[in-house]
Amino acid sequence: MKIHPQTIYRGKQPEFVILPYKEYKKLISSLEDFKDIQEVKEHVQNQSETFPMDVVLALSKGENPIKVYRKYRGLSQVTLAKKINVSKQYISQLESGKRDGTVPVLKAISKTLGIDLEDIT
């Protein structure tokens, strides 16, 4: 990209730079691309898990996070219940909002689903 700036000086010090608008827009676009690249590099270095858009949308719509993550992990209510040693009905009640989980149960669910406790509370 070739930039044609005009520099305005105050005494001997540069004070302002004036760019044609098209060049300014290209510069801003390049900066946004650079930021995107940096974010991708950071994500790759952190190796943190990402979730597909359907999971994000379901959570943003207020769907029960236990249900959303359980389905994403491919577990049935019965399977999750067996893994954490509770009844299927208990899981169903948690997912429907008819019951609040105890801290030990919620910790077991989050561990089984491989997510942070804060993600389901």
Properties at a glance:
121 residues, mainly alpha, 434 Repressor (Amino-terminal Domain), two-stranded antiparallel sheet, 6 helices, rod-shaped
Notes on the structure:
The chain has helices spanning 21-46, 53-60, 65-72, 77-84, 88-96, 103-113; strands at 6-10, 13-18. The chain is mostly helical. It has 2 domains: 6-46; 53-119, Orthogonal Bundle (434 Repressor (Amino-terminal Domain)), CATH 1.10.260. Strands 1-2 form a two-stranded antiparallel ribbon. A hairpin with a 2-residue loop joins strand 1 and strand 2. Helix 4 (77-84) packs across helix 5. The longest helix has 26 residues, at 21-46.
How much of the residues is beta strand, in percent?
Answer: 5-15%
Q: What is the tally of helical segments?
A: 6
Order of helices and strands: EEHHHHHH
Let me know the CATH homologous superfamily of the largest domain. Answer: lambda repressor-like DNA-binding domains
Shape call: rod-shaped
Helical content stands at: 55-70%
Radius of gyration: 25 Å
Quickly count the domains.
2
What oligomeric arrangement do these chains adopt?
A: single chain
Strand order across the largest sheet: 1-2
Give the number of DSSP strands: 2
Give the integer mean of the pLDDT values.
93
Euclidean distance between termini CA atoms: 49 Å
Enter the CATH topology name of the largest domain.
434 Repressor (Amino-terminal Domain)
